[in-house]
Amino acid sequence: MIKHDIVIVGGGLAGLRAALEARRAGVDVAVISKLFPLRSHSCMAQGGLNAALGNHPDSRSDSPEVHAFDTVKGSDYLADQDAVEIMTRDGVEIVYEMERWGCPWSRFDDGSIAQRPFGGQSFPRTCYGADKTGLYLLQTLYEQCVRSEVRFYDEFLVVSLVVRDGRCFGAVAYEVANGAIHAIEARVLLLATGGCGRLFSHTSNSLTSTGFGTALAYLAGVPLKDMEFFQFHPTTLVGHGTTITEGLRGQGAYLFNGAGERFMERYVSNAVMERAPRDIVARAVQTEINSGRGIGGERYVHLDVRHLGEEKLQTMFPGIIEVCQEFRKIDPIREMIPVAPGAHYTMGGIDVNADGETEVDGLYAAGECACVSVHGANRLGGNSLLDTLVFGRRTGRAIVEYLGRARGAPPAAGAADAVRSAEENLAKLVAGSGTEDPTALRRRMNLLMDESVTVYREDGALARTVEGIRDLQERYTRMRPIYGGRRFNYDLIWSLELRGTLLLAEVVAAGARIRKESRGSHYRTDYPERDDASWLKHTLAYFRPEGPEFRGKPVTITKWSPQERRY
Amino acid sequence: MIRFRVFRFDPACDKAPRFDTFEVPAEKGMPVLDGLAYIFENVDHSLAYRSSCRTALCGSCAMHINGRYRLACQTQIADVVRHGLVEVRPLAHLPVLRDLVVDMTGFMDQWRRIQPYLISTRPPSGGENPQTPEQRQLLDGLIDCILCGACYAACPTARDNPKYLGPHALMRALRFIDDSRDEATEERLAQVASEQGVFRCHTVFNCQTVCPKDLDPAGAIVRIKRHAVSRALRASGKDRPG
User: Fold this and answer.
1) Same domain flag for B189 and B138
2) Residues B194 and B146 occupy one common structural domain
3) What ipTM does this complex have?
4) Residues in a beta bridge with A127
5) N or C, fewer C-beta in 10 Å, chain A?
6) Which DSSP letter does residue B81 get?
7) Which structural domain range is residue B54 located in?
8) Shortest CA distance from A40: residue in chain B
């Protein structure tokens, strides 16, 4: 039995920031991660983190309020405005805090933290460390967690949550190194398990971004919010999937179609062009490709950064040069980069308030697995790192406070029951007598999602996908025997996680089907207009064995009444 | 078809390691990691290897591939294949837990020994600490380590002496020594300019040769030695050698 007052599941930015906050309050806290924490997907964030520091010469009149408005407008008015204001207000201090813990931010000549423009911003406010901002933030937080003696359980996969009568008492974890099943007793449990880009095959996400933590919360009765809103990054590297940072477009990179046209002029004002928010640029790129105006008629366009000059590229974007050279053998200083939209960010997630609380007492969530909501229907570039740190910290404070009022003792046989049930679950996979193969099921799911739940969506294809995913869920019960070894059994791990991924795929596709409007990243060709009268609301999906049950939830509007969104 | 010759070992049941050979249909541009995934998904579901970001950023998939330590995600089969063969082994100098998975505990313990965090008396709240671009530039290349372990596996000193701090930890130490915001320079130098620190390095440059991120741990170690010598000279009242 592993027992801690606070258990945090996930060792990425949100989980580590919460852990550090709790530890600094002198509380007993453990981080359980299916990876060694520095392997978390947070390490891949490139471009930066938005905060209204006003360091950029063009952003002296910036403020958290303007940042909040930009975020609300970017969200197509679906974000909860009170939460957005918290995020943009706390963002400034979050940046300074990371700086004092050693984050190697890039700097302006006067020694202040450097900022650059990103899409959808009134002022340049994206703080960055070259184009490896996520890596530097993750290292810095991990270092501080080690210093503060946070307890880590690396390579432990949480396989179920222990919830009784609306109260969470812990979890069950599978130890990857030896196959042991552990009961985890916690007075409060925080999920910080990241997004689910691996629903798709064209994705920037890590192989491990399966959304398993989100699925565990869903199965435990917590509703998932706004899952139909999936961000497609407009410029992912063709043939690999990693992002080519929006920072380049912020600095003036061009997008060209097969006819050599800077096509963004057809979609947004000349003042904005490539600096439009991601949903708009992704749709523009997809429209060009779908109209046969990709490069040589193929399914990609070109991002041209050559005019930015070698010096600027080498200092500000060394990582982009590396990935282009290593994965596509192209030199962006001299050649154009082939790019296309790819699944990038899970705007929806576990329904939480601004303190990370879920509907289940003692269960919290933060980061990409959670939905506060601050991103609404479309997240602005640079706001996800901000989200992880601001709400990681806030949730870290909230769970420490919660410890003072945590009620109830864990059910007597609860841990033993949960461990037995997890063991049975794994044994069932190993004893499988069917012929279905997990890889084949996953591939089929990816194909269905890639085809229908993408930049452009319509009812017929979505209906076929929902149907197809249900079929895959049924086939999942007839799988081949899964490998039964005890040590580093990835066949068992991937197969186990696939069940969660299939549940989330259904929620995303079914949610996209019922939302009969177009808003932010969710564009329905059969309902091309935003419909505030019917759909200015969040969707909540509750787990039911027969398929998700959807309910609405009001959007919090404080200062900014919804307007037409123009750039 | 490319033949993959893969190191296999399960210490729980195997008396000795062995190599298994698999046929992999390698497509143009296919990384070694995808070759392993092909084997795992289609041929042998028991194959164990770590992977996550597949973009050379998370540091999970360092292994020995055709004669050199590399990241499997970053290495294209076509670039390393020899006589139709790709041979894959785990990182050396670290205990094999299974197949291509090694125990990184000792490696990370060495990293922990150098106090791998900024030491500053300034409180975390409050305004910004300025750092000039020149000061910040000193950290370039030192902060990009992804702790994949390739340098450590290639280091003969690490092989002969498990107490040696290792190229990864020493380069990390310099990242703090050279950070204008860190206040523990003297303490750090005293720690790493020691018998199991930089002076144990034989300057073989294997770490620099293999680093998948093109970083230079050997150069970092030389820089620490210089710092240490200057400090010793200062302490003895001389400000230059001779």
Assistant:
1) yes
2) yes
3) 0.97
4) A49, A115
5) N
6) -
7) 2-101
8) B58
